[in-house]
Amino acid sequence: MTDSACASRIDEVFSELEARYPNEKDFLQAVGEVIPSLIPVFERHPEFSKAGILERIVEPDRALQFRVSWMDDSGKVHVNRGYRINFNGAIGPYKGGLRFHPTVNVGILKFLAFEQVFKNSLTGLPIGGGKGGSDFDPRGRTDAEVMRFCQAFMSELYRHIGPDTDVPAGDIGVGGREVGYLFGMYRKLTNTHVGILTGRSLECGGSFIRPEATGYGAVYFADEMARAAGKSLEGTTCLVSGSGNVAQYTIEKLHDFGAVPVTMSDSSGWIHDPEGIDAEKLAWVKSLKNTRRGRISEFADEFSSATYHETDRTASSNPLWAVKGDCAFPSATQNEILGPDAQNLINTGCWLVSEGANMPTDPVGQSVFREHGVLYGPGKAANAGGVAVSALEMSQSSQRLSWTREEVDLQLQGIMSRIYTESAAAASEFGFGTDLLHGANIAGFMKVARAMLSQGIT
Ligand code: NDP
What is the pLDDT of residues 411-422, one digit of tens each? Predict the structure, then answer.
């Protein structure tokens, strides 16, 4: 195929996808973000076109949907929808988290699962891409209700997962508590104690550093970007969004690098503490969010140096990203940095963005970062530490051994460093300069494409 024929075939595949799934906006956005990176790859590798790799890689291997019926504490029956998307299993068992959030639908899970395919490949470990979850909202539910929901969810999901088939983990709304309940039900139903879920507690066969891995990894990745540019995280002011798993451990690792995190958020609003969210304040947030399950607004009641601001969902920008800072770590959800937010970040002097969340920056925001030469670590590279340590947890489960905290952390650092190097090398090799977004897309794609090619048309 000539270069222009190749580009137009790629456009055609995307148009077909748009026509087929017009309501799956997040999924189309995720695919649309990857497609431009692949044009030079397909030009250089006609064998990929011949084998229909693009046509096949944008369709999930399978997508399951099931009913989850459960009873609340008052005896009322609720019905939620459960999902598991097996997106691509060419390089290993499907791997990716479960999200419990009222916004969950097939389009969101397909976007997350598609991203996961590339991310998992980037880790260099043998894991395919998947994602799942439910439109169940754990917020405001008692422990007993969450347990009954998790048990009902697993009473269907258990048929479809296995240590060599599909290994889910946590994501938004699914933390240690939920993973524990899910694992308990799987074990009861199958009478096996195997690594079918990662993010388990240490007592249930989990790995050291798994809870910390995504946040720590996003900071290790930021450090790689900064050092390559002759800069340092030390002494920087950092804007962090979210107050869940990823945000908490991003802040913890920023402390180790001598950086000063000053913001956090939840779905209701955000706090700004110009004196910095230090270790003591972070410990308070962990207790607030992981045990008492309160709102971030309480932070400003507890610490007089902080102010609380409610989020206006109708506004075209989020003022959190207009706070003066050097580095940004979006760690809440998708599309939380839109074009105007990216511009605000530039205006206040931000020079580095490392994405703990999945697809937190929209395409306009990404162009703003590109135009202004921001060091930009896309989620599929910067937040790959979580799934990398999940894969290390799988290895430990298979070995029935537990590696030390130091050993796992060292492996995580090595993996984040390799992801940075390989993404940077792929960007440069395929004519995208130092653009890590294209680099990560290409580096993640190559291994999956080669595996698909070697396995024939399946
Ligand atoms: P948690 O559920 O622990 O925390 C999510 C945080 O984001 C909470 O503060 C939550 O607020 C906030 N949030 C969720 N949805 C929205 C929304 N629509 N608008 C504003 N704020 C919102 O999830 P995680 O920390 O695990 O996940 C955060 C991000 O990181 C997600 O994008 C996830 O996909 C990604 N990620 C997570 C990994 C992991 O290992 N956990 C691995 C790789 C990526 P509230 O409490 O009010 O709901």
Answer: 999 999 999 999
Query: Model confidence over 367-404: pLDDT tens digits?
Result: 999 999 999 999 999 999 999 999 999 999 999 999 99
Q: Helices (H) and strands (E) in the chain — how many of each?
A: 17, 13
Selecting among 95, 110, 119, 131, the annotated active-site residue is 131
Q: Which residues lie closer than 8 Å to 249 by C-beta, 6 or more apart?
A: 211, 212, 213, 214, 215, 216
Closest C-alpha to 249, from 277, 214, 222, 287: 214
Q: Are strands 128-134 and 77-88 parallel, antiparallel or unpaired?
A: antiparallel
Q: Is 172 in the pocket of ligand 1 (CB under 6 A)?
A: yes
Average pLDDT, the chain: 97
Whether residue 100 contacts residue 138, with contact meaning beta carbons closer than 8 Å, is answered with yes
Ligand 1 proximity of 211 Cβ (cutoff 6 Å): no
Give nearest CA residue, ligand 1 atom 16.
267
Question: Could you give the residue ranges of the DSSP H alpha helices within 25-91?
Answer: 25-44, 46-50, 53-57
> Atom 44 in ligand 1: which residue has the minimum CA distance?
357
Q: 380 catalytic, yes or no?
A: no
85 φ, ψ (degrees, to nearest 5): -105, 120
- Dist CA 267 CA 296 (whole Å): 9
Helix (H, G, I), strand (E, B) or coil at 36: helix
